[in-house]
Amino acid sequence: MGIWWLVLFAAILILVAVLYFKTHAMLALLGAALLVAVLTPTPALRRYTDDEISKGKLTSQQADSLIATPGPERLAKAFGETAGQVGILIALASIVGICLLESGAAQTIINKLLHWSGERFAPEAIAASSFILGIPVYFDTVFYLMMPLARSLRKQVGKDYVLFVLAIMAGGSIAHSLVPPTPGPLQVADIIGVDLLTMMLTGLGIGACSSISSLAAARLLNRLTIVPLREDLDIDDLPANDQGPNPPLWYSLLPIIVPVLLISIGAIADAWKMDLSGIAGRALEVACDRNVAMGIAALFALSLLRYAPQGHDRRGAITRALAGGGQIILITSAGGAFGAMLRQAGIAPAVGDLAINVSGPMLLVVVFLVTAAIRTLQGSATVAMITAAGVLQGLADVSHLPFHPVYVAMAIGAGSKPISWMTDSGFWIMCKMSGMTDAEGLRTVSPLTIAMGLSALFWTLVFSWLIPGV
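and the corresponding structure tokens:
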């Protein structure tokens, strides 16, 4: 069976399972991965292993063992390898996120930015707060956190409710798709072969520019659509902390800044071939490991819980974080296994052959369109990113690629934005939490996701032209 027929059948299986049978994303991805694994012919596996041997990633004995391994066993191994690569990071990021929320640290960041911006620039402050929080906190949670603020500002200002709601999306949703350690960009970086620091810094730069552009689109949509502040919602206004002071800003930002700094130091030490022998050098090397860096961030985050209301259940907070993070780990691992089965089936050289006559900028546009199609059809931005990365991973190995592969990852992140509509659970969350009707959501939320995607693609193209080597 040709590789593209195999990809088509796998994609149809995912879409039918998610849309028609309402199957959980993990099961849909595992089913598609199993289909690919079982139907991959031995010659395709041999070509894959020969390529891996030439790259020094496999020995001849390991290649023979892989070819002799049944498809389900290869799938299980790939699932476990992905979980080993991202599981600790996602679990620790979940702990950081819930500690920021329950300690009041997230509220500190929001309040300080609003204090600095004033009422006039409140939308910018909302977008900036959402962007910062969207790095360690899943977007759905960011939206839950920020919605009471949007409602409170609408009551205070008397207008611009749509703008306040969309500003949350313009910040938090962009970070969710471009900046690790959120699961989508984390897994895309791994599949494409981009180191974590490069992914983080590039995502921060392109994400910040995209958020600014998206906020401009939100202002336009705010003029075109008026949504009243409906009072019959199951949501409280901005709560006050009556239990004591929230943590200071510098303390609140530590769990976000520390891992970025440590990973950056590690990357610089590696690039400059610094001598890390001795006790101090080895300690620095350990601290700069991405899992250890996130572990240190989690420790800082846990220390923030002393600012939580009296009687707060610290163990319960960690349990809730791991319960939510565990589901994301399973989805991400299933997506990683799907990508691994596609690699073994020969998707990388197939995509590379298609891209030989396509210019650099057009490659990014193609990547964007493929991801956007998957996202629009099945709804989940994370699943779209993981699926598209698995299919398009061959682009990162194209020898004539005129820019760093991180821009392929950024184009995938950009393509995961459009179009949020009826198939997207996030669409319903945003509509119900904000009090928008379905029609109002289609006139505001959906157009903004298109604007966010196009904006992120535009800035990806600009960055790839200005800083091709990163």
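(Above: one complete record from the training split.) Confidence is low (pLDDT under 50) at residues 237-242.
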